Amino acid sequence: MTGSQMVRHWTRAGTAIIAVTCCAVLPSSAIGQPPPTLDAETTHQLTVAAGTLLRNRSEALIQKRHREQDAPSEIMGVLISPSLERVQEQAVHELGFRGRAPVEGGPAFTGARTRLDGGRAVRTGDRITLEATEHTEVRYDTGKVTQSVRRRFEFTTRDERITMVGERVLDPAAHPLNDLDGPSDGR
């Protein structure tokens, strides 16, 4: 091998080593890949926690004699931040006294059913975002009202504990029956 052939050989080898090293060191976000989605079990856990808060608000629309005002501080292992817990309690309380009816002065709601579908949870550092579609049906004596609303729920993680810290409606034109005006943000 001549001197110039040796230099080209070492230059190619050096370039290959540098390229492999750079690829190994770069984080996946630098390569342009989306953040990782969470496994099905964790996504289900987050969906149940978020859905429980929505169901509690939907049930507050129905006239009952005794209504539990306390929002849960933990659902299926997911903590609810104290500020989001206060927002939830206020929403349940106000929705219960708002006298909701499908039309002003009309018959009161007699039943409610809410479910959260299609949840996709993505983790970025210590933040988790769950996007899902809420389907709510409220009934009254002569009919029912149904809504489908896309929502985003925000969570933080610390020492492997997940805490829900906020939620918001993704469609600004949507006016869910089981929401107070504005986002429920416990940050």
Textual characterization of the structure:
This protein has helices at 3-25, 40-60, 82-97; strands at residues 74-75, 78-80, 109-124, 127-140, 143-158, 161-169, 184-185. It is α+β, with helices and mostly antiparallel strands. Strands 1, 2, 3, 4, 5, 6 and 7 form a seven-stranded mixed sheet that branches. Strand 4 (127-140) and strand 5 form a beta hairpin. Helix 2 packs parallel to helix 3 (82-97).
Topology:
Blueprint: H1 3-25, H2 40-60, E1 74-75, E2 78-80, H3 82-97, E3 109-124, E4 127-140, E5 143-158, E6 161-169, E7 184-185
Parallel strand pairs: 2-6
Antiparallel strand pairs: 1-2, 3-4, 4-5, 5-6, 6-7
Task: Put the structure in a nutshell.
The protein has three helices and seven strands.
Radius of gyration over alpha carbons?
25 Å
General form: elongated
Low-confidence stretches: 13-30, 182-187
- Please, what is the oligomeric state? single chain
Q: How is the main sheet built?
A: 7 strands, mixed
Mean pLDDT: 80
Helix fraction, binned, reads 25-40%
List keywords for this structure.
single chain; alpha+beta; 187 residues; 33% strand
